[in-house]
Design a protein that fits this description.
With 325 residues, the chain is α+β, with helices and mostly antiparallel strands. The protein has two domains: 2-238, BirA Bifunctional Protein, domain 2, CATH 3.30.930.10; 243-324, 2-Layer Sandwich (Enolase-like, domain 1), CATH 3.30.390. The protein has twelve helices and 15 strands. A hairpin with a 2-residue loop joins strand 14 (254-263) and strand 15. It starts with a strand and ends with a helix.
């Protein structure tokens, strides 16, 4: 087994690198990595149904979809992520303990009594400190998990609570869990470097793992995959299952209520209601929105084609846009 510690905190790059290790190498791989202020949603989830999109935007939190199932999680630099990539034995939901064992042993060395619980969690003192997920590609299994050390739980709780009246989706929903930081449970500040060294010690002992530095080829492949997949709206939002989107806001010049049907990331039907004053019929805008990606940039481009004063009176373009995304 080889091990690699990512020097990047870019979530798009780290998930791309993980997939490169999964698809392009034959070695067993162990990887440690951190993301700065990121929500990572499961492959089968509807992104907008998992997050508070306004809060995420206001606080510069990035959003990325992973290739494994399960629920949405929040990452920051108080969180450490680990990945195992090995040959698949043939069983789906391969024994989670095999991959969680080095992490549990490392936590025990800190005096934290951790154990595997339920389908895919590591818990300590009754609180979830790690969520895990798996997928199989071309006979190789990817198992990865989080490890909450000093994560900002207040940001986590705000970023991952959507307005359930806004999004109606058939995507896989996250399961609410009582999460906790390892530092709080240990009664001392546990820094990423400290737990990183403890986990590596266990991995080296169990798997005789050797350090691996990225090659130029690794960097080229990971950067290309980052730019063409993980950093794109199409993967992170457009891949979401079919959903309906409703949003209403009141402004000084009147209120707007929007209802959208979205399929494959594109608006299939749009309805706009409100008590605003306009001379022209908003059906012109509704029709123009059909077939457009449900993302701010593309909707903004459509609105540029209209003199919105004719449709919404004194409600501004930015205010109209605010209700549509």
């Amino acid at each position: 087994m080889i091990f690699h510690i990512s020097k990047s905190s870019d979530p798009y790059f780290n998930l791309a690198l993980e997939e490169v290790f999964l698809r392009e190498r034959d070695d067993d791989v162990f990887m440690l990595w951190q993301n700065d202020k990121t929500i990572v949603v499961g492959k089968n989830q509807n992104t907008l149904a998992e997050i508070d999109s306004d809060y995420v935007k206001e606080n510069g939190i990035r959003v990325v979809r992973r290739i494994t199932g399960g629920g949405a999680v929040y990452h920051d630099l108080g969180n450490l992520n680990f990945s195992f990539i090995t040959k698949h034995t043939g069983e789906w939901n391969e024994n989670f303990y095999r991959f969680a064992e080095p992490v549990i042993r490392a936590l025990q060395k800190l005096g934290v009594r951790a154990e595997l619980s339920g389908r895919n969690d590591i818990v300590a003192s009754g609180r979830k400190v790690s969520g895990n997920a798996q997928t199989v590609v071309n006979g190789r299994i990817l198992h990865h998990g989080t490890l909450l050390l000093n994560t900002d739980v207040e940001v986590l709780s705000k970023a991952l609570i959507p307005d359930e009246d806004k999004i109606k989706s058939k995507g896989i929903k996250s399961v609410s869990s009582r999460v906790g930081n390892i530092s709080d449970i240990a009664g001392k500040c546990v820094k990423p470097l400290e737990i990183c060294e403890l986990i590596l010690c266990e991995v080296k002992s169990l798997y005789n793992a050797k350090m691996y530095e990225l090659t130029e080829s690794d960097m080229i492949l990971a950067t290309k995959l980052r730019d063409e997949k993980y950093a794109t709206w199409a993967w992170n939002y457009g891949y979401s299952p079919k959903y309906t989107f409703t949003k209403k806001k009141r402004f000084s010049a009147g209120g707007i209520n929007v209802m959208l049907s979205v399929e494959d990331g594109k608006i299939s039907c749009a309805k706009i209601y409100g008590d605003f004053f306009g001379m022209l019929d908003v059906s012109d805008i509704e029709n123009a929105l059909c077939g457009v990606s449900h993302c701010e940039a593309d909707i903004k481009n459509i609105l540029e084609n209209f003199n919105l004063t004719d449709y919404f009176g004194k409600i501004t373009k930015d205010e109209v846009l605010e209700v549509l995304v």
